[in-house]
């Protein structure tokens, strides 16, 4: 399908927004790109990086005349953004977002969008622990999944156009109901972030072990957790506040399983431990086969320079 | 200090043993290398890789005439190994190990070692999720810490010689009591492995989310956990069985903190979440500054080929 948008408006130009700007420019799937960010400072950075064709701090101004609008702000800011852009949206515009939670964003945005636009929520399952316009790159979405969660009554042509947009960046696209998305991401992303934040917090508060020891001996496994625990605090606060039920449900399962492991350790039940530890390998193999992970040991860290500062 | 060992015996030739063999050969700090492994098959692989000068399945034969013996087997196998090598150890030999737990190994090995040898336990805090002789590489220990846990009455010259041995591989060396080591590693390595194994296990058992979904959408954070949950089951079973108290203690702290986070999510207390999420970034910064982690986003995965199968 030959798809082309005349004017793309990006509301928010952080890691995700700026990666979309770069990928859209490179793929040629859009004509002009209008960029908005809340702070003049961020808008200036985007301008310096030449990410678009028009720059503003005013969301309404950015969306005027755009046939594709993508909201790329923290989940908790989506209602305000929808309220601000609603009256300025063009007839027939395709409105989407990139938020890590879907049902809450639909509840926040839908009431403020006029009937003459097509709203197709989306979530590209790709990111890094860095944020801001300088952290983005065009390849971020390549070989990663983007999940669309259109309502059952959504316009199928609009959904197909958004699918083509993401596929132009090398992404794979899947559709599912928003509630199912929120459950899947609770276990594959939200709870992992929560327990990573939690263990890094625990390690920071011990009396028996110093901070300096935690840092020196982090290569034993801990450092893997610090990567996701270095993600943006605002973004993640909003994720947990807006996907409360699914996160608490998945956390309850995690806790039940952890209690069983704890009991196996207390009782010296090596068979239970071995059996679990042997099973979990298969999942990693599946993720590598699904093209969602590098095969190199240690994430290929060793293939970077021996001196980690050179990385 | 100019240190040289005439004959190094490696008991066990998996990831760690074979990395030591390669690093020792390259650094020139040893004359001959004698290699032992339990199974003839593993011994043959070591021979094919030309990791040493003499090969055997018999631990006593391997240590005969060695002035440095390093035991590189799972923690739970150390008592049997000590019993087997004890009578064959040369007068004045330096005996060490690489086990991830220290107090238990000392309790297992010490009683079987003759008074005429020097026992200096060690733990190189370096590794990958792979095992076996083919997984090893000489650079594994470069810029990583090796912790020595000699008894207070240990011969200082022997400790200094072992320190020089590890430093010859580019490692940094630190000394501490075995009990303290076990507490530090419980939080920096053992509990992180346990919760990684646990969440991967939880994700494998859900009814609401399919295995295929877990694999496809793993790039949202989950895949980081699967790396350490792909580590060797025997090694890790032995770690938990042999560092039970420190692991249960650290797990209790982790659980307390997680309960508080869970409550913050339930009550919609965004400030508590934000405050923790903002603090944890500093720890990663410290680990990068300590040279124990790569600085590149996503562990530098993106610097590998865009197609993860090429990695
Ligand atoms: N990071 C990831 O790994 C990832 C992955 C997939 C999806 N997502 C989703 O993508 C969205 C953006 O994340 P990001 O990583 O790109 O964030 P980011 O790099 O921190 O950028 C956030 C952008 O939103 C703006 N913004 C922040 N707070 C705002 C508010 N209260 N009102 C209006 N605008 C506000 C910022 O503007 P100023 O700089 O001008 O203040 C900036 O333009 C989030 O919904 C997140 O859930 C993130
Ligand atoms: N992997 C890491 O990341 C890491 C890091 C630091 C320290 N360590 C410690 O290093 C030690 C070895 O780990 P590794 O990763 O090198 O393991 P590995 O790659 O699985 O190799 C294990 C070696 O021990 C032998 N072995 C296994 N079970 C045995 C038994 N019951 N009796 C005698 N020999 C046995 C194996 O012999 P066969 O192959 O012939 O059966 C093989 O030679 C462990 O104590 C571990 O705690 C590991």
From TrEMBL, chains A, B:
Its EC number is 1.3.1.12. The lineage of its organism: Bacteria, Pseudomonadati, Pseudomonadota, Alphaproteobacteria, Hyphomicrobiales. It comes from Propylenella binzhouense. Residues 6-295 form the Prephenate/arogenate dehydrogenase domain. Keywords: Amino-acid biosynthesis, Aromatic amino acid biosynthesis, NAD, Oxidoreductase, Tyrosine biosynthesis. It catalyses: prephenate + NAD(+) = 3-(4-hydroxyphenyl)pyruvate + CO2 + NADH. Belongs to the prephenate/arogenate dehydrogenase family. GO terms for biological process: tyrosine biosynthetic process. InterPro entries: 6-PGluconate_DH-like_C_sf (IPR008927), NAD(P)-bd_dom_sf (IPR036291), PDH_C (IPR046825), PDH_N (IPR046826), Preph/Arog_dehydrog (IPR050812), Prephen_DH (IPR003099). PROSITE patterns: PDH_ADH (PS51176). Pathway: Amino-acid biosynthesis; L-tyrosine biosynthesis; (4-hydroxyphenyl)pyruvate from prephenate (NAD(+) route): step 1/1. It is an enzyme of class 1 (oxidoreductase). Pfam families: PDH_C, PDH_N. It comes from the Bacteria. One of its GO terms (molecular function) is prephenate dehydrogenase (NADP+) activity. This is prephenate dehydrogenase.
């Amino acid at each position: 399908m030959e798809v082309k948008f005349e004017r793309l408006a990006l509301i928010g130009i952080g890691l995700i927004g700026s990666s979309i700007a770069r990928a859209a420019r490179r793929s040629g799937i859009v004509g002009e790109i209008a960029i908005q960010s809340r702070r003049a400072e961020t808008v200036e950075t985007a301008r310096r990086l030449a990410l678009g064709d028009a720059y503003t701090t005013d969301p309404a101004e950015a969306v005027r005349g755009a046939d594709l609008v993508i909201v790329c702000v923290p989940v908790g800011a989506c209602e305000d953004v929808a309220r601000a852009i609603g009256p300025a949206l063009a007839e027939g515009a395709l409105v989407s977002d990139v938020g890590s939670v879907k049902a809450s964003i639909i509840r926040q945005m839908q009431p403020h969008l006029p009937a003459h636009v097509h709203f197709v929520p989306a979530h590209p399952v790709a990111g890094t622990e860095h944020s801001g316009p300088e952290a983005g790159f065009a390849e971020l979405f390549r070989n990663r999944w983007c999940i669309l969660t259109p309502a059952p009554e959504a316009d199928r042509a609009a959904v197909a156009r958004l699918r083509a947009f993401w596929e132009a960046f090398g992404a794979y696209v899947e559709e599912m109901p928003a509630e199912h998305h929120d459950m899947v991401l609770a276990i594959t992303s939200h709870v992992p972030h929560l327990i990573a934040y939690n263990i890094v917090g625990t390690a920071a508060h011990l009396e028996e072990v110093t901070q300096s020891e935690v840092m020196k001996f982090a290569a034993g496994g801990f450092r893997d957790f610090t990567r996701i625990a270095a993600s943006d605090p605002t973004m993640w606060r909003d994720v947990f506040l807006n996907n409360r039920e699914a996160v608490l449900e998945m956390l309850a399962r995690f806790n039940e399983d952890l209690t069983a492991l704890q009991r196996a350790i207390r009782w010296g039940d090596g068979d239970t431990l071995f059996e679990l530890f042997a099973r979990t390998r298969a999942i990693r193999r599946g993720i590598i086969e699904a093209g969602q992970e590098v095969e190199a040991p240690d994430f290929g860290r060793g293939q970077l320079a021996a001196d980690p500062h050179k990385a």
